[in-house]
Design the sequence.
């Protein structure tokens, strides 16, 4: 009954891959998952949540589909403590209000790590755009009175920015 599972360097993960894996080890108790892939195709991360019903922490080093946020909300069975995903082409289809809602329904102190590759053309612009978008409604200083513990960490190369969800935006802000 592993609680933590790390899958590395497999070319293509699929529902069939996880069905086969279920036959070899019990996956129902996995709460933390790290997945690395060599695939350049977008992956539907809802497959992880359907395979691992107790999943609370996910790091995916691959390309997620544009509907990643809706996929997680639709398929997760447990509140997330952390989600660490890599973007190389697009941040997906979502608004800042949808991001705030996404964070509100997770554990208090939820960490969303958005990693943006540095090699692909246009990623510097993507990094700049997400930073500016988050600055509109998130705090950059945790010591502010309305700053919650839930945060978005944006990484690209050596650049790192942390944005805190305002408490008045969070339904779990009462501590």
Sequence:
């Amino acid at each position: 009954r592993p609680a933590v599972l790390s899958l590395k360097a497999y070319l293509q993960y699929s529902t069939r891959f996880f069905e086969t894996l279920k036959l070899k080890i019990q996956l129902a108790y996995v709460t933390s998952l790290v997945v690395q892939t060599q695939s350049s195709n977008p992956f539907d991360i809802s497959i992880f949540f359907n395979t691992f019903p107790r999943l609370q922490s996910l790091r995916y080093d691959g390309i997620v589909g544009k509907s990643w946020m809706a996929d997680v909300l639709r398929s997760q069975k447990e509140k997330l403590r952390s989600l660490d995903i890599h973007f190389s082409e697009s941040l997906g289809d979502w608004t800042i209000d949808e991001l705030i809602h996404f964070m509100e329904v997770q554990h208090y102190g939820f960490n969303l790590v958005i990693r943006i590759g540095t090699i692909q053309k246009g990623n510097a612009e993507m990094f700049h755009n997400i930073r500016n978008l988050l600055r509109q409604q998130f705090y950059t200083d945790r010591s502010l009175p309305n700053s919650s513990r839930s945060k978005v960490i944006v990484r690209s190369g050596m650049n790192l920015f942390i944005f805190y969800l305002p408490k008045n935006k969070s339904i779990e802000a009462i501590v």
Observations:
- The chain has two domains: 1-66, 95-175.
- Residues 170-175 have pLDDT under 50 and may be disordered.
- The two ends are 33 Å apart (CA to CA).
